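Quick question, first post here. What does this chain look like in 3D?
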Amino acid sequence: MRKIFVTGIGTDVGKTVVAAILCEALQADYWKPVQTGTYYGTDADKIRKYISNTKTFVHPETYCLKHYMSPHAASEMEGIAIDIDKINLPQTNNTLIIEGAGGLMVPLNNKQMVLDMIVKFDAEVLVVVQNYLGSINHTLLTLEVLKNRGLKVMGTIFNGPQHKLSEDIICEMSGTKILARVGKENLITKEVVARYADDFRNI
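> Answer (accepted):
Ran it through. Tokens below.
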């Protein structure tokens, strides 16, 4: 089973859209181990809405929390303790796209972070980047942490309007490459996801 972990340089940078495109391109399974903010729906629901292929299976979350906040805070409000030992890979022979919650250093509990899940799963990592003031710093920090943990970084995927100066310096200083990009879209639909899937098939 190939395991690809989709992380981002922060919250709301486009991880779920990228995960949907990867699922469509690779006809891969999808799994979000820890979901917060279920008052507003789940990322698994979005994946089901966005994909067209019939091979992708959306695996249930291990932890599904109502409040839209960091997992450690949301779980505390609901009287639940997130135990990383109980977050185990689903059984599948298919490629598995795993989506994180926020960025690498988001706490799951008082001792462990999203990063610790990636280490446990021994997954390849894709970093979703969105250009904004401060994104160079956030991206380089993310890539440095992954490198220091000895994790395999496949590369970056940029989401939103292009900013060549920022993207060039990130690639030059980190030694990573841009694998694909998603442009600014007013609405994400199955058709949009299918259109981008062609660019993601060789990832």
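DSSP finds seven helices and nine strands in the chain.
The chain has a mean pLDDT of 96.
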